[in-house]
Design goal:
Strand order of the largest sheet: 11-15-10-5-8-9-16
Helix content: 25-40%
Radius of gyration: 25 Å
Number of helices: 10
Shape: globular
Strand content: 15-25%
CATH topology of the largest domain: Rossmann fold
Distance between the termini: 69 Å
Bound molecules: flavin-adenine dinucleotide
CATH superfamily of the largest domain: HUPs
Number of domains: 3
Largest sheet: 7 strands, parallel
């Protein structure tokens, strides 16, 4: 694609300069000019009121995508059970499917996983594409990519959602490459364009400082991943039935290059902050491991989990699995107590789904207070012991 300036129409008004997100447009000698930073995103074309910018984009034939229908959720199975993120995506998928007037389907791959179908129906699935084979018992990139690619080529879904888990982050890009599709990773919001029915895929960009909404106008399915904890569960439909479509699996030796010989559970108790109802989180204001230990006591007294900011993790006061935020986990507890945390946007991105946020900070202007339901301005080393004493007194 190329963009050019039509000199006899350009007024040098500068609208294109304002619209360009890359600072690639300038006005020189009263005429718009494209600089080397142009990515040909097309923002200037939309902004120009004088039809003074030409492009060959319109000349490219648009594929007919009308045959692609249905919202699909790839269902992840962990230790024989459905991963919570898949259930969250079913809730979100049901909303998108209802808006489009299309069906919600899930794709279930594995060995002997048919027993999970009733739960998928209860979580909103109208249809389950089921592929069972010994070669699918443990996740492997090539085997799962083959089966999912075949299913997509045969049934042509409109939208495909996957969890942004280690598995989803491996599978989704491979599928995207194999089928020449787009992929928006780590979406925080999904919505349907009321005009053309396309999927609006919103995610943080530029280090979390802007939210970017991405569309996929020329490929189907529209594919997005969403991190665990970002979407809420949908309502259950106990007793609901789902149509089961069985897919015959024919794996080639080339799909089974990786064999799982053994798996070993981690020695430590795995942390699942996504499922915690109460989280006490600490930041730089903890001052060190002792401050974090104080918060661990509060978390224990409330029957909750301990989490924190990236600073706390980088300082070595907390394990990586407890980092909350854009590059950590997203949480939705009933109660989130943020102690000594400034509330940077990258941290807030991970805790905004909490029902109640209590913030303790000695700086009254700390950004965390702008999202807190209860703001306690003061020293956490005075407030937290007082809370512990009150909890002890109440016990
Ligand atoms: C691409 C990118 C991704 C990132 N991802 C994440 C992420 O996933 N998660 C994340 O958390 N950060 C992330 N960050 C870092 C983020 O920008 C902030 O730097 C970080 O969240 C700040 O951590 P903090 O609040 O612990 O520290 P600070 O910002 O230094 O804040 C410390 C706060 O403690 C308060 N305080 C100090 N002493 C006390 C006391 N005794 N009592 C009460 N309050 C006290 C201070 O007033 C201050 O507000 C990311 C950054 C980038 C660029």
């Amino acid at each position: 694609m190329a963009i050019w300036v039509i000199a006899d129409k350009c007024t040098g008004c500068g609208l294109c300069v304002k619209a360009c997100p890359y600072g690639a447009m300038q006005v020189q000698d009263k005429l718009a000019a494209l600089g080397p930073r142009c990515t040909q995103c097309g923002a200037c074309l939309e902004a120009c009121k004088f039809e003074a910018l030409g492009s060959d984009l319109a000349d490219e034939p648009r594929p007919d995508l009308s045959g692609y229908r249905g919202v699909w959720v790839f269902c992840e199975v962990q230790d024989g059970a459905l991963a919570r993120v898949s259930l969250e995506l079913l809730g979100q998928g049901a909303r998108l499917a209802a808006e489009l007037g299309q069906t919600l389907a899930t794709v279930l791959l594995g060995e002997d996983v048919e027993g999970l179908v009733p739960e998928l129906a209860a979580q909103g699935a109208d249809r389950v594409y089921l592929a069972q084979d010994a070669g699918l018992a443990a996740y492997s990139t090539l085997a799962y990519t083959r089966v999912l690619s075949e299913l997509i080529a045969t049934h042509r879904p409109n939208i495909l959602l996957l969890g942004a888990t280690p598995l989803g982050r491996d599978l989704a890009p491979r599928l995207s490459r194999r089928l020449d599709l787009g992929l928006t990773a780590d979406c925080t919001e999904l919505a349907i364009d009321p005009v053309d029915g396309g999927l609006w895929q919103t995610r943080p960009a530029f280090g979390g400082n802007v939210m970017a909404t991405i569309v996929t106008p020329t490929a189907r399915p529209q594919m997005a991943t969403v991190r665990p904890g970002v979407m809420a569960l949908g309502p259950r439909r106990d007793g609901a039935q789902a149509e089961v479509v069985r897919h015959p699996v024919r794996l080639e030796p080339g799909d089974l290059l990786v064999r799982l010989l053994a798996s070993q559970a981690q020695g430590q108790r795995p942390v699942d902050l996504g499922a915690a109802r109460v989280i006490v989180a600490g930041g730089r204001g903890c001052g060190g491991p002792q401050g974090m230990e104080l918060l661990a006591q509060l978390a224990q007294a409330l029957g909750g989990e301990l989490g924190g900011t990236r600073v706390a993790v980088e300082e070595g006061w907390l394990g990586q699995a407890r980092q909350i935020g854009q590059t950590g986990v997203t949480v939705r507890p009933d109660l989130y107590i943020a102690c000594g945390i400034s509330g940077a946007i990258q941290h807030r991105a991970g805790c905004l789904g909490a029902r109640y946020i209590v913030a303790i900070n000695r700086d009254r202007r700390a950004p965390i207070f702008s999202v807190a339901d209860y703001a306690l301005a003061g020293d956490m080393f005075k407030i937290v012991p007082a809370m512990l004493a009150a909890l002890k007194g109440a016990a």
